[in-house]
């Protein structure tokens, strides 16, 4: 099962005189320590709760040890035992539903060392768990395993036997990455790709060959079928980002209307080409050029209004479903989706890094950056990351996410400001494919959509005279 979590060497299990610190008290302390590892968890009252009896639907008497809700996506339950077997309780939690309408697809079985019973007070527990961070030796380690809903009805355990040894920072990472099983993300991306292909095929039936060629050419595609598929993919992701931007105060002031509002402005409650073009023009006047520029160019002047309206309306509803799925800011959905729409991956050597592989590489690379204080806004904002053949931005996104996690885990709270500074000056992404640059910028933007930004270093480099535009870029 593909998680970006390492096996950590066991810390020395320091001995304490056996005490009476209860498992209930330990759960409260661990929940508080976890809550401190992410800005969203700190800022949201019920994001991390312990020993609650009102969180499982139709099972109100059951009391999960700890329940963690991410900003997006599914919640995860942690079942704790002190020097005992936590597996049975964790396994039983998979498949249950919460009172707030979410399914539990994953649960963590966590075994704490016996020494925690020797802690005298909640204050001592808080102190010890606060030290359970990367680069510090708290004198103990936590052991945990993940139970998940498999592709069938079976429940799978990772690792299959024994436990991972790690600290509270590692546990926070697992709570985010394991909440939604990867096979569910893959299946959803497959379904979205099929729907995009269906909409592209329907569009081709409604337009002439010349118009289809013009759309493909507008986004740098030589093959008509693939060009229409990728145009529909761009329109879908842009409509999704459009709706997110329309909810921000800055874009409301500029007169940007949501997709629903644009529908209400038309006869028949459907999107029209003119309304969408005007709305995207408002956004382009602000910026987001690497995202909305290719999408607007693909809406060629020769596109029949009826066919264009039908396609955009269908894609906007698909965009709503993608948003409703709640895959969240920690899932590289573009990296899962984009390759499924390509016909010529081998011919063009379009090899896309798996998001899980990117996450592992990012952890190795980012954790080696010599940062004195990961909670320092200025120091972290000065980090520079670049990918000169970025594709859909999978590596850049993973590296940026790792920087954010380290920043938040260290106590950094200005995540919106960090996002703006990283988007404007910290991240460089270039590719010879303008569609890839579009997906990179869109994927990075949605991580903190409430925070707008202006200039970026993300875009497409032209291929001229046999030069790729990527490696040669390093010369200057």
Task: Describe the secondary-structure layout.
Blueprint: H1 23-35, H2 39-43, E1 48-50, E2 66-68, E3 76-82, H3 87-93, E4 106-112, H4 122-130, E5 142-149, E6 155-158, E7 164-166, H5 168-177, H6 182-206, H7 209-218, H8 224-246, H9 249-253, H10 259-264, H11 273-286, H12 289-298, H13 305-325, H14 333-337, H15 355-366, H16 377-381, E8 385-387, H17 394-409, H18 415-426, E9 427-431, H19 434-445, E10 457-460
Helix pairs in contact: 1-4, 6-8, 6-13, 7-8, 8-12, 8-13, 8-19, 11-12, 12-19, 15-17
Q: Explain this structure to me?
A:
With 476 residues, the chain is of the alpha/beta class. It is 46% helix and 10% strand. The strands form two sheets. Strands 1, 2, 3, 4, 5, 6 and 7 form a seven-stranded mixed β-sheet that branches. The relative contact order is 0.10.
Overall shape: it is globular
Number of strands: 10
- The whole-number mean of residue pLDDT values reads 87
Distance between the termini: 42 Å
**Radius of gyration based on Cα positions:** 24 Å
Percent range for β-strand residues:
5-15%
User: What about the largest sheet?
Assistant: 7 strands, mixed
- DSSP helix fraction: 40-55%
Number of helices: 19
| Model regions low in confidence, pLDDT < 50 over at least 5 residues | 1-18
Helix and strand composition category: alpha/beta
Element-level helix/strand string = HHEEEHEHEEEHHHHHHHHHHHHEHHEHE
Question: What would you say about this model in short?
Answer:
With about 475 residues, the protein is α/β, with parallel strands linked by helices. Helices cover about 45% and strands about 10% of the residues. The longest helix is centred in the middle third of the chain and has 25 residues, at about 180-205.
């Amino acid at each position: 099962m593909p998680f970006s979590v390492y096996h950590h060497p066991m810390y020395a299990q320091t001995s304490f005189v056996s005490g009476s610190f209860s498992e209930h008290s330990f759960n409260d302390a661990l929940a508080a320590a976890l809550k401190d590892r992410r800005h969203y968890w700190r800022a949201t009252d019920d994001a991390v709760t312990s020993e609650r009896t009102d969180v499982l639907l139709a099972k109100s008497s059951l009391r999960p040890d700890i329940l963690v809700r991410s900003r997006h996506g599914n919640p995860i339950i942690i079942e704790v035992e002190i020097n005992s077997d936590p597996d049975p309780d964790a396994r039983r939690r998979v498949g249950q539903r919460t009172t707030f309408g979410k399914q539990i697809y994953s649960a963590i079985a966590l075994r704490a060392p016996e020494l925690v019973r020797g802690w005298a007070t909640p204050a001592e527990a808080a102190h010890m768990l606060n030290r359970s961070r990367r680069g510090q030796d708290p004198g103990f380690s936590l052991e945990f395993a993940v139970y998940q809903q498999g592709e069938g009805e079976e429940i799978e355990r990772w690792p299959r036997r024994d436990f991972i040894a790690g600290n509270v920072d590692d546990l926070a990472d697992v709570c985010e990455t394991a909440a939604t099983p990867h096979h569910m993300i893959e299946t959803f991306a497959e379904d979205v790709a099929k729907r995009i292909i269906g909409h592209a095929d329907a569009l081709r039936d409604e337009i002439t060959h010349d118009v289809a060629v013009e759309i493909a050419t507008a986004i740098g595609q030589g093959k008509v079928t693939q060009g229409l598929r990728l145009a529909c993919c761009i329109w879908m992701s842009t409509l999704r980002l459009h709706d997110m931007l329309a909810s921000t105060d800055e874009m409301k002031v500029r007169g940007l209307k949501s997709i629903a509002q644009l529908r209400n402005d038309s006869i028949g409650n459907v999107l029209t080409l003119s309304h969408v073009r005007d709305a995207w023009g408002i956004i382009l006047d602000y910026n987001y050029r690497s995202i909305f520029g290719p999408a607007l160019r693909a809406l060629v002047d020769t596109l029949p209004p009826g066919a264009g309206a039908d396609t955009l309306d269908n894609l906007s509803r698909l965009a709503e479903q993608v948003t409703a799925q709640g895959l969240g800011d920690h899932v590289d959905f573009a990296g899962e989706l984009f390759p499924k729409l390509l016909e010529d991956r081998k011919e063009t050597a379009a090899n896309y890094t798996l998001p899980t592989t990117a996450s592992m590489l990012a952890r190795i690379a980012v954790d080696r950056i010599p940062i004195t204080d990961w909670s320092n806004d200025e120091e972290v904002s000065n980090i520079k990351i670049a990918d000169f053949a970025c594709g859909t931005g999978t590596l850049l996104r993973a590296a940026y996410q790792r920087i954010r996690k380290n920043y938040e885990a260290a106590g950094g709270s200005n995540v919106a400001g960090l996002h703006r500074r990283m988007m404007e000056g910290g991240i460089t992404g270039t590719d010879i494919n303008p569609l890839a640059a579009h997906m990179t910028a869109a994927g990075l933007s949605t991580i903190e959509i409430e925070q707008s930004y202006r200039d970026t270093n993300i875009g497409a480099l032209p291929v001229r005279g046999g030069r790729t535009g990527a490696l040669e870029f390093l010369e200057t």
